[in-house]
Amino acid sequence: MWLHSHMGHLEKYDETLARDPMAAFGLVREWMRTEWRELFAELRERRPVFATPVLTVVTRFADVTEVLSREEVFTVRAFGPRLDAALGGPFMLGRDATAMNWRDKGIMQFVLDPGDVAGVRELAGRLADEALDAAAARGEIEVVHELFRPVALGVCAQYFGLPGPDPQTLSRWTRTIITDCFANYLGDPAVQAASVEAGAEMTAYLRDELEARRAGRGPSGDVFARLVASGLDEERVVVNMAGLPLGFVESGPGAMVEATEQLLLRPEVLARAVTDDDFDRYVWEALRFNPFFKLLPRICERDYELAGTVIPAGTFVLAAPASAMFDAAVLDEPDEFRLDRPRHHQLFFGYGHHACLGVHPARAVICEAVRRLLLRRGVRVIEGVTRANGIFPDRFVLGLEA
Ligand code: HEM
Q1: pTM of the prediction?
Q2: Rounded distance, CA 8 to CA 4, Å?
Q3: 312 DSSP assignment
């Protein structure tokens, strides 16, 4: 027993692998959820490209960015069918290096004008303060559903031009589709069917909205209006508009919760953050200690040598930005909370061909929502974070001073 408790993850893994390969993989899956920092530290050091019976995990910064830069080798083919089934047509995150990727991403980058960011930040701040004011008298707030999701949904409504029939319905659509695409590892048919149904509702809604806008009804100046004016055909407008809440409503509040939780764990850092003009860097450094996207899945299309290890064609690969952002080959003192981390060491928004389309507005909205919350007096944890499927934050109760 003494020996056992002092064994590293790899010794325990290898020992289990010899007896029961699936049990060994089960250990890895559990460690990636609960002890990812310790596991990844060991892997970076001893087995940086880690092949298990089910999938291969890539842990060093240089290798993670190489995988994400080689879209013709490491493809998103695993997402494609799921996204297509929900959206009724191809979407950039389900294809690699096609004319559609190039054209749609270019047009979407254009309609998500980085010049909008100051206005989007103001909007997010206003929405956050309204939610906080409404909760203050009660002395507490459940930040996922009373603050962060309402902020994300409000940005969808007012900036993207996509309010949905109502916020609850839009919120249900995104959770249902994203759960199938990114958390339905075993391919549960009921989860898939729910996603297809939610996608059909969302795209039908968007087709109606598009028709109304083409008939001259509806607001001007939002992202939807610009996309309608871009000349893209109906299917492309609908699929790309659907991609906006899908990209934002889970990952935005997810990042807000994780950054907030990490800052509340560091009271002395938090005290400095709220009086610092450059608040955002506290958010990004906090998020590094629990990134919302820890692993990005790819399929290896041909035998490929990575850092001396051959990854065979057909392998399911997880590139691990959460590990890369602790790689001492790139970051100074990776285990320390430091405010001088350069942006090119941050992989919260992916890297390469599929790097996040919404990065500019998302950065501003995340930081402003968290800032408005933490500027309130007496913020403290009443109930820790609960996560659906171990991924999507669903409940986090904080106390506020009235
Ligand atoms: C305005 C809000 C957002 C929108 C509209 C959006 C949209 C998208 C889209 C369409 C893609 C796929 C790009 C492609 O395939 O070329 C993408 C990728 C990505 N986004 Fe976002 N996103 C948003 C916010 C966020 C947030 C808040 C995070 C995380 C904190 C995030 C993290 C990522 C990551 C990691 C990828 C890469 C996925 C991969 O390589 O597999 N995004 N985003």
Answers
A1: 0.97
A2: 9
A3: P
Give, in order, the Cα–Cα distances in Å from 202 to each of 125, 209, 244: 27, 11, 12
CA of 27 to the centre of ligand 1 (A): 29
- Alpha-carbon torsion (316, 68, 58, 247), positive or negative: negative
Closest alpha carbon to 67 in 292, 290, 247, 299: 299
Closest residue (by CA) to atom 12 of ligand 1?
A: 93
CA distance 210 to 192: 26
The structural domains of the chain, with segments of one domain joined by +, span 70-293+348-399
| Structure tokens, 317 | 């690969």
**Element of type H or E holding 141:** strand 140-142
Q: What span, in angstroms and rounded, lies between the C-alpha atoms of 218 and 209?
A: 8
Ligand 1 atom having least distance to the Cα of 245: 5
Q: Which atom of ligand 1 is nearest to the CA of 243?
A: 10
CATH class of 70-293+348-399: mainly alpha
Q: Is 252 in the pocket of ligand 1 (CB under 6 A)?
A: yes
Q: What is the DSSP letter of 146?
A: I
What pLDDT band is residue 315 in, cutting at 50, 70 and 90? very high
287 CA distance to ligand 1 centroid (A)?
16
Q: How many A from CA of 75 to the centre of ligand 1?
A: 16
pLDDT, tens digit, 9 for 90 and up, residues 53-92: 999 999 999 999 999 999 999 999 988 999 999 999 999 9
CA 278 to centroid of ligand 1, rounded, Å? 24
Distance (Å) from CA 182 to ligand 1 centroid: 13
pLDDT tier for residue 2 given thresholds of 50, 70 and 90: very low
Tokens of 256: 């807000």
Q: What is d(CA 289, CA 40) in angstroms, rounded to the nearest whole number?
A: 13
Q: Which residues pair with 388 in a beta bridge?
A: 392
